[in-house]
Design brief:
The protein is built from two helices and twelve strands, in the order H-E-E-E-E-E-E-E-H-E-E-E-E-E. The chain has 180 residues and is mainly β. The protein has one domain: Deoxyuridine triphosphatase (dUTPase) (Deoxyuridine 5'-Triphosphate Nucleotidohydrolase, Chain A).
């Protein structure tokens, strides 16, 4: 079951949810509005899932970043967000999507025990300016059934934009057996 806004506020106060910094005015009926952090990287190259791709840190001009149509970017949330008791789900804000910026295209699930600044996947379909501290989306919190296990995966403790680590889990060709 999803937590209501008041339950999110209570869980932050009790320490069951981490949202740091927390601002009561950004609590919604069933979520919390997260903001864009101060770092954005443009990801380029034919091999984005391993060696061969490149990341370039953008420099804000007049306090804002220009994201170019069709380019792929990694940013991060301003807030550290997570819980050892609840599962988090992070999505983009519909009003941002209507401006032509897709946020969090694939990885919206945060496991129990993962508390960090989330890496944000950003894909503009037209040129758009974004600002550090701008509200980009919502995070919701869900109760788990059963005993929660602490997340020990690749991305659970990052506080800066983290590139894909998928290549670390792909077996070498010599390790792949033919399927019969």
């Amino acid at each position: 079951m999803i937590l209501t806004g008041s339950a999110i506020g209570q869980a932050v106060q009790s320490g069951d949810i981490v949202i740091d910094p927390f601002d009561e005015s950004r609590v919604n009926p069933n979520s919390y509005n997260y903001r864009l952090g101060s770092e954005i990287h443009r990801v380029r190259g034919e091999r984005r899932n391993g060696p061969g791709g490149s990341r370039e840190a953008l420099t804000p001009v007049d306090g804002r970043f220009l994201l170019r149509k069709g380019e792929f970017y990694l940013g991060h949330t301003l807030e550290r967000i997570g819980s050892t008791r609840y599962v988090t789900s992070l999505i983009g804000r519909s009003s941002i999507g209507r401006l032509g910026l897709f946020v969090q295209l694939s990885a919206d699930l945060g496991h129990c025990g993962a508390v960090h600044r989330w890496t944000l996947e950003l894909l503009p379909v037209m040129d758009i300016y974004v600002y550090p501290g701008q509200i980009l989306g919502q995070v919701s919190f869900w109760e788990v059934t059963g005993d929660p296990l602490a997340y020990e995966g690749w991305y659970g403790q990052h506080d800066r934009p983290a590139p894909s680590k998928l290549h670390a889990g792909i077996p070498a060709p010599s390790q792949i057996r033919e399927l019969r």
